[in-house]
Design a protein that fits this description.
Elements: H1 3-13, H2 17-20, H3 37-50, H4 55-74
Helix pairs in contact: 3-4
Length: 83
């Protein structure tokens, strides 16, 4: 299942971060079309590793960053700076 579908399914079931956030809790979502997204997710993973976040969570973030970068390579005309 593609990452987007997993995320949406997790949100619907309240498992993923946006689905678990309180109604008044700010949430920041990055899309693969954002040229900065893969690098931001990699940076988050490195910071998470330094903060002793469980390895499976760090690895999942790095996998997602790769999926984003792969998507950007496949659809370069859809990649843009944040608007």
């Amino acid at each position: 299942m593609p990452a987007e579908a997993k995320m949406l399914e997790g949100m619907r079931k309240g498992r993923d971060c946006p689905g678990r956030a309180a109604g008044d809790e700010p949430v920041f979502i990055l899309r693969a079309q954002d040229i900065l997204a893969p690098r931001v997710v990699v940076r988050w993973a490195h910071l998470a590793e330094q903060a002793n976040v469980p390895l499976n969570k760090v690895q999942a973030a790095l996998k997602l960053a790769k999926e984003m970068a792969d998507w950007q390579a496949k659809y370069p005309s859809r990649v843009k700076v944040p608007d």
